[in-house]
Amino acid sequence: MFNNNQIFTAPLAGITDKPFRTILRGFAPEACMVTEMISCHSLVGGHKNCIRNFDDYRDEGNIGAQIFGADPKLMGEAAKILQDAGAKWIDINMGCPVPKVATRAGAGAFLMRDHVLAGRIIEACVKSVQIPVSVKTRLGWDDAHKDWQDLVRVAALSGAAFVTVHGRTRAQGYSGNAVLPPKPVLPIPIIANGDLKTKEDIERVQNLGYDGAMIGRAMLGQPWIVGEICGTCARPENVGTVALQHLELIIDYYGEKAGVPMFRKHAAWYSAGMPNSAQFRITVNQITDATELKKIIKDFWGL
Question: What pTM does this model have?
Answer without folding.
Answer: 0.94
